[in-house]
Amino acid sequence: xxxxxxxxxxxxxxxxxxxxxxxxxxxxKLGLSDSSMKILYTVCxxxxxCLLQEICRRCGLxxxxxxxxxxxxxxxxxxxxxxxxxxxxxxxxxxxxxxxxEQTAVRMIQAENEIFAxxxxxxxxxxxxxxxxxxxxLQEKCRFF
Length: 145
Description:
The chain is mainly alpha-helical and about 140 residues long. Helix content is about 70%, strand content about 10%. The protein has helices spanning about 5-30, 35-45, 50-60, 65-75, 95-105, 105-120, 120-140; strands at about 50, 80-85, 90-95. Strands 1-3-2 form a three-stranded antiparallel beta sheet. Strand 2 (about 80-85) and strand 3 (about 90-95) form a beta hairpin. The two termini are about 25 Å apart. The relative contact order is 0.10.
């Protein structure tokens, strides 16, 4: 069978997969599903009271998966939804949810920040610049599918 993936793209796919696996392992060790961790992480990133639609957009999960995870977190007393207009909902953490976020998502964010803090500033800038460039090119290609 013909090989379609270039050596560079193969390496990129491998690295992306390994990064995803590392995040999955952190979530598992912290006792959360990947989707619950992504939701808590997003709330910590955006700030409490973030819009549900923003969580869907930033998590990279389907709306159905986000809604299912939200319902589970809500039933566990971690968060609650509040109306912010017609059909618009805000996600808010309970006291239990803030405590859980501190023990899980905030620890993950701290680990990420420590990694970037340990790199020279120019490496961080270059990494982000190239990642944004790749994303922009990929989004442009997606327009033609």
